[in-house]
């Protein structure tokens, strides 16, 4: 019944001759995490900038909690938090001073800004570093501070634009934990990412964006199910790749993808394939097989399939 | 335009947020005492460099001590450094995404430039005080009484404030701290192209025209007048040199009238 808390309808945006958005539609129900997934240049950041009132769409409209991002930008800004691709904190100040600054600028009282800063530093594991200058923080700590800086005014909707880009694996895990913590509070999160495992781990729903449009939506499992099962074949000798590829092509009706020097992957639409049949066919073609596996596809494969940029073996 | 808040409330938040942001600039300075030391050492270096190194070779027109002649020029220089200081800070915030964060928050839009220029005014007062102290030590002094002296300092502070808005606009246009850093060395020639350090009489006619219309020359000439320092007017002065106080007021008002709206528009514009 209730409208999505984040709603975008037919957003268009061009920069010079580049059409960054070509009719992007998006709806995020309250209290969920939406992963906006897409390659570089797909329009993810442009969409976030419009939703966060930093940029106006050329056409289309968007609302946050029912408020129009163009006409009622002031109301929208009271309800959102934005963590962009930079750690937009002041390196010269301490972590605590940064949070108090953003608290005050978010129009909290002096006392509340102070209390809220202390709470958040404690909760997100930055209490020990709170009184050090941010310039001395690690990349992960800086991003975490950036993330909690937009929590200080208790936003209803949080926009995270590629929150883990450029972080080491440990930093990524720290950010993931922080996002899960937020979700537990009921904050609605819209996060953009190029990393499929990130969307897989964090998002309730995924919107796959390519060339300024949403080309697929669904839960991670739904998206994976659209591809049916996936077959992995590892051959013992790279010379066996070509015959193996033609066997898979004959079976599945699609070109397999080369995923390594000695391995192939093919989607098997509709299921109904028996592993034993496949092995027998490969054997008949004289392919020495090291490993054969049937499994659910990964999001990577879904993504590549959807954006149609796979490398095929001929 | 885009916000639904009534005007009085908006004004209140502009002031409150502006003070918060000015406080941030002061806190940054406090966190970096080396910067303060460097900033305060600058006047001393300038006085020694120009007053003693160059001064030994320069004749003051109409006679008089070169250091008395020089100090109004250095006060004027303090006015102009506001452009680079504020430009650098605005560009740094824009390039590091801090500006976007401000813009996505309920923070009043104009609070950012007001905070920057307000903090810069305080910094300017500190610099001016250091410059005055150094001047007094090397033998400079005002000769025309408290009222004229106060008038001179007010003009210097006014021009600096007006110039800081030029810096706001440039910083918002440049949007990149590296580009801003590359622009900074350009300010020295602009400073030199004036009557601050040498009389303009000896310059080629076209260059002299430029120098005479440099706002820096106006404030220098006005302060020389009001402090009673040497540097008599030449025979056929350009208009700003004949009416330096009016010229400073004009330059300041013109800078504010042009650059405050430009800066406000650049700050509130939503495009990219």
Which SSEs are present, and which pair or pack?
The complex is a heterodimer of chains A (314) and B (272).
Chain A: E1 6-15, E2 18-28, E3 33-37, H1 44-51, E4 59-64, E5 67-68, H2 73-77, E6 80-83, H3 95-105, H4 110-123, H5 139-149, E7 157-161, H6 169-184, E8 188-193, H7 196-202, E9 205-210, E10 213-218, H8 220-225, E11 229-235, H9 241-252, E12 257-260, E13 263-268, H10 275-284, E14 289-295, H11 299-307
Parallel strand pairs in A: 3-8, 3-9, 6-7, 7-8
Antiparallel strand pairs in A: 1-2, 1-4, 4-5, 9-10, 11-13, 11-14, 12-13
Chain B: H1 7-31, H2 33-54, H3 66-95, H4 98-103, H5 111-137, H6 145-174, H7 177-183, H8 187-192, H9 205-213, H10 215-227, H11 239-242, H12 244-268
Structure described in brief:
The complex is a heterodimer of chains A (314) and B (272). Chain A has 314 residues and is an alpha/beta fold.
Verbal overview:
The complex is a heterodimer of chains A (314) and B (272). Chain A has eleven helices and 14 strands. Chain A has two domains: 219 residues, 3-Layer(aba) Sandwich (Rossmann fold), CATH 3.40.50; 69 residues, Alpha-Beta Plaits, CATH 3.30.70.260. In chain A, the strands form three sheets. In chain A, strands 6-7-8-3-9-10 form a six-stranded mixed β-sheet, sandwiched between helices. With 314 residues, chain A is an alpha/beta fold. Chain B has 272 residues and is an all-alpha fold. Chain B contains twelve helices and no strands. Chain B has one domain. Chain B is elongated. In chain B, helix 1 packs across helix 5, helix 2 runs antiparallel to helix 3 and helix 3 packs parallel to helix 6. Classes of the chains: A alpha/beta (314), B mainly alpha (272). At the A-B interface, helix 2, strand 6 and helix 3 of A face helix 1 and helix 4 of B. Chain A: Its main location: membrane. Chain A: GO terms for molecular function: ATP binding; ATP hydrolysis activity.
């Amino acid at each position: 019944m209730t409208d999505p808390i984040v709603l975008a309808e037919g957003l268009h945006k061009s920069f010079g001759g580049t059409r960054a958005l070509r009719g992007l539609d998006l709806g995020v129900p309250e209290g969920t995490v939406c992963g906006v997934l897409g390659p570089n240049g797909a329009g993810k950041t442009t969409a976030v900038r419009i939703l966060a009132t930093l940029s106006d769409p050329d056409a289309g409209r968007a609302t946050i909690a029912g408020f129009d991002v163009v006409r009622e930008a002031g109301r929208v800004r009271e309800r959102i938090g934005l963590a962009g691709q930079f750690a937009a904190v002041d390196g010269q100040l301490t972590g605590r001073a940064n949070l108090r600054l953003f608290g005050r600028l978010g129009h909290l009282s002096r006392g509340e800004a102070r209390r809220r800063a202390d709470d958040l530093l404690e909760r997100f594991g930055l209490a020990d570093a709170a009184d050090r200058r941010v310039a001395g923080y690690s990349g992960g700590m800086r991003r975490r501070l950036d993330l909690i800086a937009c929590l200080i005014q208790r936003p209803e909707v949080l926009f995270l634009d590629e929150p883990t880009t450029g972080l080491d694996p440990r930093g990524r895990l720290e950010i993931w934990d922080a996002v899960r913590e937020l979700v537990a509070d009921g904050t609605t999160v819209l996060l953009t990412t190029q990393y499929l495992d990130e969307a897989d781990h964090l998002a309730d729903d995924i919107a796959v964006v390519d060339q300024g449009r949403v080309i697929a939506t669904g839960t991670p499992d739904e998206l994976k199910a659209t591809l049916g099962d996936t077959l992995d074949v590892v051959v013992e000798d790279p010379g066996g790749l070509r015959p193996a590829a033609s066997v898979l092509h004959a079976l599945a009706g699609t070109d397999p993808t080369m995923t390594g020097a000695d391995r192939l992957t093919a989607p098997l639409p509709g299921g109904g394939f028996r592993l034993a049949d496949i092995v027998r066919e490969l054997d008949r073609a004289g392919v020495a097989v090291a490993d054969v596996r049937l499994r659910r596809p990964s999001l990577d494969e879904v993504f590549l399939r959807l954006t149609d940029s796979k490398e095929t073996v001929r | 335009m885009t916000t639904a808040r009534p005007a009085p409330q908006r004004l209140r938040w502009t002031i409150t947020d502006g003070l918060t942001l000015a406080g941030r600039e002061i806190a940054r300075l406090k966190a970096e005492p080396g910067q303060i030391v460097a900033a305060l050492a600058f006047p001393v270096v300038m006085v020694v460099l120009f007053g003693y190194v160059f001064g030994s070779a320069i004749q003051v027109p109409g006679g008089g001590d070169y250091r008395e002649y020089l100090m109004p020029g250095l006060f004027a220089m303090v006015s102009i450094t506001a452009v680079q200081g504020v430009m650098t800070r605005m560009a740094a915030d824009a390039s590091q995404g801090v500006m976007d964060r401000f813009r996505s928050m309920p923070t009043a839009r104009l609070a950012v430039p007001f905070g920057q220029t307000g903090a810069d005014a305080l910094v300017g007062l500190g610099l001016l005080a250091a410059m005055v102290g150094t001047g007094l030590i090397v033998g400079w002094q005002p000769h025309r009484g408290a009222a004229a002296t106060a008038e001179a300092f007010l003009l210097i502070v006014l021009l600096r404030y007006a110039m800081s808005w030029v810096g706001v606009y440039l910083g918002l246009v440049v949007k990149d701290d590296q580009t801003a850093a590359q622009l900074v060395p350009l300010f020295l020639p602009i400073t030199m192209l004036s009557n601050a350090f040498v009389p303009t009489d000896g310059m080629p006619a076209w260059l002299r025209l430029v120098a005479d219309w440099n706002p820096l020359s106006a404030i220098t000439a006005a302060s020389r007048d009001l402090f009673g320092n040497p540097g008599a007017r030449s025979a056929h002065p350009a208009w700003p040199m004949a009416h330096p106080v009016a010229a400073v007021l004009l330059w300041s008002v013109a800078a504010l009238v042009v650059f405050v709206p430009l800066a406000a528009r650049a700050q509130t514009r939503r495009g990219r």
